[in-house]
Amino acid sequence: MPHARRLLASIVLLLAAAPACAQLRDGEWVSYRDAYRVMVVFEKYGGPKNFLQSQLQVLPRERAGFDGLQLTLAGKSTELHLALDALGRTRLPLQKAAYDENAALVLNRKGVPFTVRPQVSIVARPDGVYDSAELRAACVQALEFARHVDAGARGRQCVGARFVFLDKGEGGVRLRREGGGEQGLPMQDAGDGMQAVLVRFGAQPGQVVTVNAPLAILPVFE
Amino acid sequence: MNKLLSLALGAACSVGCGGAWAQTPAANPMPDGSRDMYVGLGAVSAPRYEGAGSRKVSALPVLQVQWSSGFFVSGMSAGLHLGVSPTFEFGPLLAVLPGRDESGSGTGLDGIGPNAVAGLTSGPLDKSAMLMRGGTLTGIAEIGARLQGGVFANYYLTPQWRLTGNALYGSGREHDGARLQLGVQRLAASLGERHHVALSAGLTLANRNDNQTYFGVTALEASRSRFAQYAAGGGLRDAHLGLRWNWTWTPSWLLTTNVQAERLLGSAKDSPLVERPTNVTVSTAIGYRF
Question: Which domain holds residue A213?
């Protein structure tokens, strides 16, 4: 019985201490350590990745625009504001100090519960011209990385790349064949005001030309 | 989340499950020189011993530490992650198997080992007195805590599903018992969720030396206890199911709750020491992440 009483007292003390430490609102933070642990895998990956980038993507639980939204890395001695792009992505800095402080990732807007996930995409070229062989190589790099972290991806194949644009006005992807001739590719609604163009890899070499820089170029596996 | 939440505090099982289902935490990439540590305290309701019909409630200390070097301590086990692939973890593993005395308690938790009783109880009168004390192992020799050594390996079919296995040697009265545990786990996988539920199922195989120690009854023990002599053999020892729920309150505080159901099988199930072949262990603890 004395054991039970002591145990009960300890649990009550712990329970009383917990809310005092809970200055963060439920659902509105993500552990930096957990995010670090997922994101560092790409940094440490030893395979080819020169065509790729890895970003942390914020996923609000409810519909919310990313206009003016920032992710803040907040620890005892760390405060770093990370701008989000229109897809809610940012490059997560990998900092030992923030890791050791067990820092949190929070948004600069209250009342937006969210989760995060890593997203690997193909780096956009400044000239907007993508050789189809290079695009395929980038997709293969992304697939090899996916297989590195997920054995379930081993049965998949690269079939194309999806160019995502903010709205229709910005879009426009043309396929320039090696023998001459250009063909515009159809836009698809990608939701949340986004438009996307799917470029499927074909047997014929050529180039993919974008009018404006895409928000993201995502590899497509099937 | 991802494997992360295999941040499942393996420690929560360490006392309540008698160390039998110690599970290795997922590899935790971190900055050089860093560590990830959880400590906590809670309570566990478990059978007095494996197969007991009666239960006890004990304090449950929680400890899980991982270092950037790959070393980890998880409850009553410690090991080293040697693999570099995110889909395959392996390495050496040490685990402490709590002892068992006549009251059935794990070593040190209750702190009272009625060692003298074994030598004093004999004869029909004493036996009938012992029969009145069901749920204890009066007359059965005490078994000390054992340090087991071996290896573990986990293979991730996907980031959410992993096959787990470990082989440990060193249990049993003569330190020559061996156990092989095989299982499958469904891990919680999304980053930022407050509630993470992980499910597991597995089997344990044990050699004869291990089973005889924990489920056998020697002629001497039979003569001074209420149990008939029994020679346990090796083979399938148990099947178990587990559910772990981690509720993270802040980056530092969480509540970890674990429910484990175990069904003894084969020679272990048929032991006269076994009053109830299916048992459930429930534990809950508050943890702090440093």
Answer: 124-221
Residue scoring higher pLDDT (B202 or B75): B202
Domain match, A131 and A107 both: no
A132, A206: one domain: yes
Q: To probe the interface with A, which of B72, B191, B195, B247 has the most A CB atoms within 10 Å?
A: B191
pLDDT digits 0-9 by tens, B97-121: 999 988 875 533 322 122 222 222 2
**CB-based contact, B247 to chain A, within 8 Å:** no
Is some CB atom of chain A closer than 8 A to the CB atom of B28? yes
Same domain, A116 and A128: no
DSSP symbols for A112-175: --EEEEEEEEEPPPTT-EEEHHHHHHHHHHHHHHHHHH-GGGGG--EEEEEEEESSGGG--EEE
Q: What is the pTM of this model?
A: 0.83
Select from B70, B72, B79 the least CA-distant residue to B167. Answer: B79
Q: What is the ipTM of this complex?
A: 0.84
Q: Any idea where the domains of chain B sit in the sequence? A: 3-289
Give the pairing type, strands A52-60 and A114-122: antiparallel
Query: Any idea which residue has 């499910």 for tokens?
Result: B199
How many residues are present in chain B?
290
pLDDT tens digits for A30-43? 999 999 999 999 99
* Domain end marker among A74, A96, A120: A120
Partner residue facing A30 (CB), from B34, B43, B192: B192
Instruction: Note whether A99 contacts B155, CB cutoff 8 Å.
Output: no
**Domain B3-289 superfamily per CATH:** monomeric porin ompg (2.40.160.40)
pLDDT in tens, A74-111: 999 999 999 999 899 999 999 999 999 999 999 998 88
